[in-house]
Amino acid sequence: MLDDIDRRMLRVLQQDGRITNQDLAAAVGLSPAASHDRFRRLRERGYITGFAALLDPEKIDRALLIFVEIQLDRTTADTFERFAATVKRTPEIQECHMVAGGFDYLIKARVSDMAAYRAFLGETLVNLPGVRETRTYAVLEEVKNTVVLGV
Questions:
Q1: Tens digit of each residue's pLDDT (9 = 90 or more) over 96-133
Q2: What sequence ranges are listed for the domain HTH asnC-type (predicted)?
Q3: Which of these, 59, 84, 91, 97, is most buried using a 10 Å CB contact count?
Q4: Other beta carbons less than 10 A from residue 29's beta carbon
C-alpha cells in the first residue's frame, strides 16, 4: 500500500523521470539512501513500470491524431486474439482499447497528414483481422494530452 511519501515520489517522478536521486530525496523529504530504497521498492512492486522520452509528434512527422472506432464482424476469442496481435505490430497505433458499447475497439493513432491517414485506412485498418466497420475522428485541437496519473 502506498503512503504519502510514496505518492509524493510518484508525482515528482511523473513530472521529471530523469530527476537525480539526490533531488528526488530533497523533494520528498528523505535521505538519498531512503529515497533510493523507496524508489527500488516502487519499481519491484510494479508501481513504476518504465521510463520513456516524450516526443513532439509534429517534429517527427506524426502531427495528425486520429481516433477510430472499430466494429468486428465476429466477437470470438480467435478474432479478438488475431486482431490484438496485429494491432500490437502496427507502429502507427499508439493505443487500442476493447470497449463496451456500440463498437468493439477504440484506436488512437498518429500519422503525418490526411493523405497518410487515407493510406493507413486503406492499407492497414480495413485489413486488420475481423474488421467489419470503422469510424474515424480526426482531432482538430488537443485540449489536454498527459501521461500523468493522479496519485
A1: 999 999 999 999 999 999 999 999 999 999 999 999 99
A2: 2-63
A3: 84
A4: 11
